[in-house]
Every structure is written in C-alpha cells, then in structure tokens.
Design a protein that fits this description.
CATH architecture of the largest domain: 3-Layer(aba) Sandwich
Distance between the termini: 19 Å
Largest sheet: 6 strands, parallel
CATH class of the largest domain: Alpha Beta
Number of strands: 13
Strand content: 25-35%
Helix content: 25-40%
Radius of gyration: 19 Å
CATH topology of the largest domain: Rossmann fold
Strand order of the largest sheet: 3-2-1-4-5-6
CATH superfamily of the largest domain: NAD(P)-binding Rossmann-like Domain
Number of helices: 8
Shape: globular
Number of domains: 2
Length: 265
C-alpha cells in the first residue's frame, strides 16, 4: 500500500518511526509546506525512507492518505484527495469542530466514492459510545486532566501562573464546541467523543490543570437508555509534544496496519 503522510511534526515523525519496517506499508510521500521540507527530508533520511517530500498529495500512485497536520491540511489536502477517490485517515479530529467541515468531509468522500476514517486517538471506548447512541444516549461528559505545563500556550495562562499551581484548577467548563474553539491543540479527544456520541453542542467538557498528575488523564461518562459507562485513561504524553498523548500515534499506526492485516479488530 502506497501512503502519503500529511505532516511531519511530532505525531508524523513518531508514526514514521513505528511503521518504517512494516510489510505492506510504504510511505511514498511526505506532504509538508515548503518551509518544512528540509526537516522532513532529514527525518526520512534518518529513518532510511525513500519517500519523496512534496507540498501536495501526488495525483497518482497513492492508495491512502494519512493526515497529521491540522485543520488547514484537511481543507488543503484531505478534501481534494477524497474527491479523487483516495481514502483518508484523519488524526486531527478536533478540526472537525469548525462549522461545516464534517459535512465537507462527508460530501468529498461521497463524491469520490471513498471514506474518511476518524481515528479514536487518545481515547478508548469510542465503539461503545457510538453503539450507545444507537441504543439511546442522553448524557455525555468529558473531563481532561493534564499537568500544568501541558496547558502552556493556551488560554489557561490568562490570569494565572501555571507554574505556581499547587492544587487542581478547572481552566474550562462548557460545550465541546466551545472547548475546541478555545483549546484547539487540546480538542481532539473532546471532538472525537462528541462526534461518536451526542455532538459538539450537547457534549459537556471540563478541562483541569493538575500538578498532582504526570500523565494526560481522560475521563468519559455516558448514560442513557442503553445503560451507563465510565472510562478513565491515564496516557503518557508524547515526548516531543506534552499536549498530545502517545496513544494518539499508536491509534494512527493501528488504523494503518488494519488496512493491510488479514484479520483486523
């Protein structure tokens, strides 16, 4: 399978490291802006990859596109690839909180008679949540808890010194759509939970900076006619980016390997 990877940042690089020796998976192209081409070539050379570094998904010879670069990449690269009939795996699920983008993805996939797959990323039980929606789902709550330094560079810094926190501090409460707008780099889990369940406007979100934790802690509570469940995950952060759980990379790798595995779950 010939793959085009969009993005070669922390997630993209970690993904390349894990799949470089996988039989049946060949990263043929790494798609990055011109200013990122040098760094991407260095990564490819270090890993012994023969991938071409380009600024757009090649028009031919690509069987699957994997996105790991954010909202702009979805509009610029994923939508055109879907319209050409190339299936895509989308890691930046938080970008789908933008009005109209989920509908654009669906329309592009329909036009190309293919599919855009949204990976679960850092959270589990997405299959159970989506099934619960069919059975009757009334309430979905997501709580994200991370160490204070993981919230740096976000609105959490406004009016508070994250380094000085000595107790857990709620930095946001609201809907998943509001969370995605204010914390776009931390929005993937909330958006994934929302899209699988009640939607961005009916999913409640609570974000916490907690100096007592070293991991990224995700909790989902759901209840309805199907019953109820509670899920708590304590994920190690990605070494190159503490805002991202390492499990996000593993989720993308799993999705890739499932495309060529004789038996997949």
């Amino acid at each position: 399978m010939q793959i085009a990877l969009i993005g070669c940042g922390a997630i993209g690089t970690a993904l390349l490291e894990l799949v470089k020796d996988d039989a049946g998976l060949h990263v043929a192209a790494i798609v990055v802006p011109a200013e990122g081409a040098g760094a991407a070539r260095a990564v490819a050379e270090r890993l012994g990859l023969r991938a071409q570094v380009v600024q757009a998904v090649p028009a031919q010879g690509i069987d699957l596109v994997v996105e790991a670069a954010g909202h702009a990449a979805i509009e610029q690269h994923v939508l055109p690839a879907l319209r050409r009939g190339v299936p895509c795996i989308v890691a930046s699920v938080g970008a789908l909180s933008a009005p109209g983008l989920p509908e654009q993805l669906e329309a592009a996939a329909r036009a190309g008679r293919t599919q855009a797959q949204l990976i679960a990323g850092a959270i589990g039980a997405i299959d159970a949540l989506a099934a619960a929606r069919i059975g009757g789902l009334d309430v979905v709550r997501y709580t994200g808890r991370k160490p204070p330094h993981a919230w740096k560079g976000t609105p959490a810094e406004h009016g508070r010194d994250l380094d000085a926190l000595t107790a857990e501090t709620v930095i946001f409460e609201g809907t998943a759509r509001e969370a995605a707008a204010q914390y776009p780099k931390n929005a993937n889990v909330a958006a994934t939970v929302s899209l699988a369940g009640l939607g961005l406007d009916r999913t409640t979100v609570r974000l916490i900076a907690d100096p007592a934790v070293a991991e990224n802690v995700h909790q989902v509570e759901a209840a309805g006619a199907f019953g109820r469940f509670e899920l708590t995950m304590r994920n190690q952060p990605l070494a190159a980016n503490p805002k991202t759980s390492a499990l996000t990379v593993f989720s993308a790798v799993r999705a890739l390997r499932a495309r060529v595995a004789p038996l997949a779950i």
